[in-house]
Design goal:
Enolase-like, domain 1; TIM Barrel; seven-stranded parallel sheet; three-stranded antiparallel sheet; 14 helices; 38% helix; 16% strand; binds D-glucarate; binds magnesium ion
Length: 421
Amino acid sequence: MPRIKNVIVTPLAFRDPPLLNAGGLHEPWALRSVIEMVLDDGTIGLSETYGDDPTVNLLTECGHALAGIDVFDINAMQARVRETLARLSPPTTDGSPRTALVTMLPRVFGALEVAAFDAMGHVVKRPVYDLLGGACRRDVPFSAYLFYKFAGHKDFDDGWNDPWGNVQTPEEMVREAREMTDRYGFGSLKLKAGVFDPALEVETSKALHAAFPHMPLRIDPNAAWTVETTLKLLPQLEGILEYLEDPTPTISGMAAVQNKTKLPLATNMCTVAFEHMPETIAKGAVKVILADHHFWGGLRATVELAAMCRTWDIGLSMHSNSHLGISLTAMAHLAAATPNLSYACDTHYPWANDDVIEGGLIQFHNGCVRVEDKPGFGLTLDRAALARMHENWKRCGLRKRDDITEMRKYWPDWNPKRPRW
Ligand code: GKR
Ligand code: MG
């Protein structure tokens, strides 16, 4: 069987609109990295993940360490990544687990594992969804990810502005939702909340529900509300939401709300690793978990998470950050092969205006991404686009996401404190 020859990690930047969230404001550039796992027979497996410096550096180190491993030996890869990270992480003085091992192992190993699955698919000439157990659906539904936003970035003009304009009122949000659903065919809505006073965000939610009464709606304040605020708002939200995502911080905070309402609470913030599952389940903190293979440890780990959710009767949805088409395709293959993925997945993809794969931006059909019956993910890198977006990364100078500094360009006193209301 082919063995891993080398792993190439290329950091990229692509233009990102000024999207508001509880953590601040998106900068003009979003960072990602593309991973190419090259096998000794010339096969290349693709993956995409975060593009911040620590991730890129650790990915590069761990990628080198994989040389010589059989591409089907995922367990050997995981052991090698673990050893490499342990070597690179400074020992802690208080005896707690080494930071890089705890936080970075699932991220770094997960990104490499995705590339290995793409490569395996090419070797055996089967799509990745078949390697994960077969497709339960070929058309994977995504939801319209709605953001409050500014019209353009302050002190930045390269001639490109996104076409969505200023969105700060309920009416403007309904317009954004209308355009996004018309353009992509999405059948459900997600509002990124936690930006303005909750009264305005509840009003926006009601306006969206009134304008799209048949579309499931979820909102996500990213832990910007206290338990008390959330409890007060519940009566207005219960009839109009399919789920309420991370209204308040911590597993205990979420449990204090969930135990007082039938409205499902969802999370990609308080339960983000396997070690959080026992407390989440014991306290009945959430009814939905948003899986994300980028931080849960890859495709197989997410399948394991799905099995836990099935066992404990927890619904499964999918989380997203700013990303490109390789991640979108990996998410779609994973979702296709996960029977209990019971909600439309999140995606930031409609906010991206460039891509690194041949054929350019992936098209949604009726709000869905179709997984193709082609080897691996069925994708080929567009080398010119990769070079162009790597140049963006060199020029833009950003090396980690910093929504706080960007937000303070508008509101110098802006306080990132959470919960805020
Ligand atoms: O991109 O602004 C954003 C989102 O707020 C993102 O950072 C979150 O991770 O989309 C995410 C979420 O569902 O919490
Ligand atoms: Mg969320």
